[in-house]
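Open question from group meeting: does this chain pack into something compact, or does most of it stay loose? Before anyone orders reagents, we agreed to write out a predicted structure and look at it together. Recording both the input and the output here so the notebook holds the full record.
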Amino acid sequence: MIKAKRIKIKLIKNRYLNVVQAAVFLYVYVNVKLVNEID
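Structure tokens returned:
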């Protein structure tokens, strides 16, 4: 039971990190695109 709970927390953490990475990637991508269009 404790082991299963730990795995669940790990999965939630991984999903959270993936979302954060995706958000950062999108943010950087949009900023680079905007800078390129301004030049």
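Observations to bring back to the group:
The helical segments are 2-38.
The chain is about 95% helix and 0% strand.
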